[in-house]
Give the backbone structure.
Amino acid sequence: MLKTIKDQSSPLLMLWNHKLMTIAGVKISLGNMVVALVLLLFASRLSKLTARLIDRRLIQPFVSDKAAQTTYGTFVFYACLAGFVTLSLTIAGIPLTVFTVVGGALAIGVGFGSQNIVNNFISGMIILVERPIKVGDIVELDNISGVIQSIGTRSTKIRNAENKIFVVPNSFFLEKSVLNWTFETTTVRTTLTFGVAYGTDVQLVENLCMDILLNTDGVEQTPVPQTFFENFGESNLEFQLIFWCNLDKIGALGEVRSRIRYAIDKKFKEHRIAMAYPQRDMHLKVDRTLEVKVLS
């Protein structure tokens, strides 16, 4: 019976040990290739499971910063992936020295066909290490502004106020100017300007504006808001309001500015303060008397 089983399995063993190729003196059999592919498939899944376990047991209990947790989790995943890939190749009997033979070809391929991919990958690693931007930061670049949702190895996702997701290559953040509103603090300064008609009591305008700034939701009281009589304009008296907002406490700066404008309009109407509009005086110089006709 054992002889029968051996005879039946012999073709399978021959197929399993069938040599597919020889690289640098190393014979790669069909069995080796199958084992390598299966282990590589599970390497990705095992890396994710291991990274989640490490994140839950080691990273989250000791790291409070959510952005730092994401950074460490990304590095743990790729470290686990590299470890499992190396282990799978070793178990399959494929020595790592095999890849030195194809290293030149890979270098040429990367140089000619994968420059952008490698550039964005390296940029992603630099961003994760140096952290010029983090998950949750509010950034502004070109015509895009929003909140960083995730930082990958190739691209970064930004969600704007309209709930649209923009996928931006990582190299963009290192090659161009990016405004990070929350790089060191979430409290930012903003301004609002307006003009009132000439003849208005400027001290009353200041008192009303300070009362509005000190009682508007979303305006921080430290640093203290300020009202400046900015300039004597062509058609109005120009004022500027300077105040601070914590971006973690408000939906958007535009919402706070809108509340202040509504309050200014209401207060000024109550005190009969006129908002200025452009005015022009015209002087006509003519050589002869103008005839004026009134048509009924």
